[in-house]
Design a protein that fits this description.
Blueprint (H helix, E strand, L loop, with lengths): L3 H12 L10 E3 L6 H4 L4 E7 L2 E6 L2 E6 L5 E4 L9 E5 L2 E6 L2 E6 L19 H9 L6 H6 L9 H10 L13 H23 L22 E5 L4 E5 L14
Antiparallel strand pairs: 1-6, 2-3, 3-4, 4-8, 5-7, 6-7, 9-10
Helix pairs in contact: 1-6, 5-6
The chain binds a DNA duplex (14 and 14 nucleotides) through helix 5.
DNA sequence: AAGGATGTTGCCTG
DNA sequence: TCAGGCAACATCCT
């Protein structure tokens, strides 16, 4: 389920319930948090930061991360054990198999909104500055770094590297500055394409390399498990360029 | 139809 | 003590 754009969809669904100003009338579930702290809290905002879904109250915020297998239901229930159920007057949110944490204080003190790949406040220059300090990091790990590209996941990583014509075995330091900028721009743009296609239920139809055998130009794709997390990486040795320190191709 | 995955944490081991 | 490895989580897709 959850790369940043999928969490934006969840955020929009909940925002459409117009719950701001309403109070929590019931809270339950097996999340190891203090349910009593939530009771009677007045909702002040529904936000997201990357893959984090945020339910904000005056003095605390519920942070939900769906990880790989998390799911949710709005105004309906599944059979399985609920991790967190929140009732407002007339509305019910249910979350399953997810990580739930309470952030104390003001939510703005917990997040750098300019790092969220989907945010209005996204700052590409800040991302480039951070990347320049990570010259030895592989491009795969850099794209998945949630402090640089909050919300960017493995599908987006694969598609961005293809769009930017960057071979996944490059490190950040090998990329010419112009190519680094192209990668950052592609990360932002593909994330919004992902959002649009996901809403249309046509996400997989647009994959150029992820889970594919051939690239759009008909070249055989290679698949390797790469980076710190040994994540699946699909790439085209013909279309995606390997840079070298001497500037040779 | 068995096996793997859009992710991250935290425990175990050496 | 610390870093690396890997299990855990539940469901859907191939």
């Amino acid at each position: 389920m959850p790369e940043g754009p999928s969490i934006v969809i969840l955020k929009e669904l909940v925002q459409d319930l117009h719950l701001v100003g309403k109070k929590v009338t019931h809270a339950e579930g097996d999340a190891r948090i203090d349910m009593d702290q939530l009771l009677h809290q007045k909702l002040i905002a529904i936000k997201s930061w990357g893959k984090h879904f945020l339910i904000c109250f005056k003095d605390c915020t519920i942070r939900i991360h769906l990880l790989m297998f998390g799911s949710y239901r709005i105004n309906e229930r599944k059979e399985s054990q609920v991790r967190l159920r929140l009732n407002f007057n007339g509305a019910e949110l249910n979350f399953y198999t997810c990580s739930v944490k309470i952030l104390q204080g003001n939510v703005n003190d917990h997040y750098d909104w300019t790092a969220d790949i989907m945010a209005d406040d996204w700052n590409a220059e800040a991302a480039i500055d951070k990347l320049k300090k990570e010259k030895d990091t592989s491009v795969c790990d850099a794209l998945l770094d949630q402090n640089i590209f909050s919300g960017l996941g493995n599908i987006i990583k694969n598609e961005v590297l293809y769009r930017a014509a960057i071979h996944p075995e490059n490190t950040i330091g090998l990329l010419p500055p112009a190519r680094l900028r192209i990668m950052v721009k592609a990360a932002r743009e593909y994330s919004f394409d992902f959002l649009k296609w996901k809403k249309e239920n046509k996400l997989a139809a647009h994959w150029e390399v992820y889970q594919q055998k051939l690239c759009p130009k008909g070249h055989e794709l290679e698949k390797k498990y790469m980076g710190e997390g040994k994540r699946r990486t699909f790439f085209c040795n013909a279309c995606q360029k390997m840079y070298s320190k001497k500037g040779k191709s």
